[in-house]
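In the previous chapter we treated chains in isolation. Here, by contrast, the input contains two separate entities that must be folded as one system, with a combined length of 356 residues.
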Amino acid sequence: MNRSPARRARIAALTLVLAGAGEFACRAADQAADPVAGKAPGQVAGQVAGAPAVQAVDANGQIEDQGLQARFERITQELRCLVCQNESIADSNADLAVDLRQQVREMLVAGKSNAAIFDFMTNRYGEFVRFSPPLEPKTLLIWGAPFAMLLLGGGIIYRVVRQRSRMPLDDEPAAGP
Amino acid sequence: MWKFLLPFAAFVALAVLFAFGLNPSRDIHALPSPLIGKPAPTFTLTDVLDPARSVSNAPLKGQVYVLNVWATWCAPCREEHEALLAISQQHVVPIIGLNWKDQRERAKQWLQQLGNPYQGVGFDGDGRTAIDWGVYGAPETYLVDGQGRVIFKFISPMTQQVWDTKFMPLIAAARRGGA
């Protein structure tokens, strides 16, 4: 009886806030890793014009700019190869994966943002092309289900434990909540 | 009361989920095309048979047409070829070919030996046009309506039966809608 409904509500709220904060942190990290997001188009254009456009990609498909190459690796890990549906386009040797890697490379060299590249891919191949679905109303169930189940399980355990702790010690434990 | 109803409701929910998820007639690798209902991407490519000529879907705007993606390295494309020839003989709609990541000489030979069901075949050697259409395997067949929107995508070899049961009703509906 030491947990009042108010206290229980606070715990539930805290859990939700933590879940939200985790998601927010991931988004923020994405944004930070995407130098184009949040910049004015003019700046981006300037960057592209200033960058050595020729010879931006070497013979092995490595982008000379280290930052772009790092983003290239992250993005291609995040995109599904639709020919061999459980591999990313970074890992796959399928012809289509090779083409899509080339597409990503060119878009990066052209100064496109991560978001623009993901949009380009989902517009053509559907949401399925991304390994992690974006957080939006229709994907709320996917993102929320683990937390909902955690809350549900926690609630059940809480009730069982509380019920049993109130029973006399010499009694056989009763089953179920 | 709740003690019996809750597990029963959970059972029903799981049963429905499994009936959908484990349904053997559902092809788990078939993906809905995000292009359905959207404007067909336009392309202008060189003709497989004559590099000096160009093939584009832009002039077809206003009519219902079919885009068929194929390649000589694709065995199921060989399988559907007869059906495509027969369908082209029926002159229902123009069929445009997209020759995907192929070699021009081989594609030419294929058409000369097996017959050409296409009004024009665009040569997409680097696969750029295919990426715009969200192609991820061959053969794929797209149906575009009179407003230039993609209304259907069929993944698998075309057959006369698929044509009659899936394409013809859509073509008829598109024509009614467009008129």
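The domain at 35-178 of chain B is CATH 3.40.30.10 (Glutaredoxin). The two ends of chain B are 60 Å apart (CA to CA). Compare these points with the single-chain example from earlier in the chapter.
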